[in-house]
Amino acid sequence: MNGVICCVYRSSKKDETYLYVDKSRGLEKVPEALLQLFGEPKSVITMLLTAERKLARADAKKVLAALQEQGYYLQMPPASETYMQEINKHNDKLF
User: Fold this and answer.
1) How far is CA 59 from CA 4, 8, 13, 51, 72, in A?
2) What whole-number distance in Å separates Cα of residue 44 and Cα of residue 33?
3) Among residues 74, 54, 76, 73, which one has the least CA distance to residue 64?
4) What is the pLDDT of residue 92?
5) C-alpha angle 41/45/51, rounded to 5°?
6) Is 75 left (phi over 0), alpha (psi -120 to 50) or beta?
7) Nearest alpha-carbon partner for 46 in 72, 10, 9, 71
8) Predicted local confidence at residue 2, as pLDDT
9) All domains in the chain, ordered by first residue
10) 3-state secondary structure at position 32
11) Nearest-CA neighbor of 72 among 12, 32, 35, 20?
12) pTM attached to this predicted model
């Protein structure tokens, strides 16, 4: 079973925003500008991340690819229900 020991941090500034990093590299690959917007990283969990692992709001394969390519994965909050209803209202006008 191949995988990455992954640390997940939650943002101190943005609700429901998480940063995944390879534990061996820590936050060194995360751009300074992103860290300033993210705020102080609060540790949530350290886990073995594999392609088969189920994550609540992210695709493990995409997270692993991002960790390999850029050194981190940023999980943004889900779109709000109101925003999605507004989009749906505009879509109805197209038909």
Assistant:
1) 14, 14, 24, 8, 14
2) 21
3) 73
4) 60
5) 115
6) beta
7) 9
8) 81
9) 4-92 (3.10.510.20)
10) helix
11) 20
12) 0.80
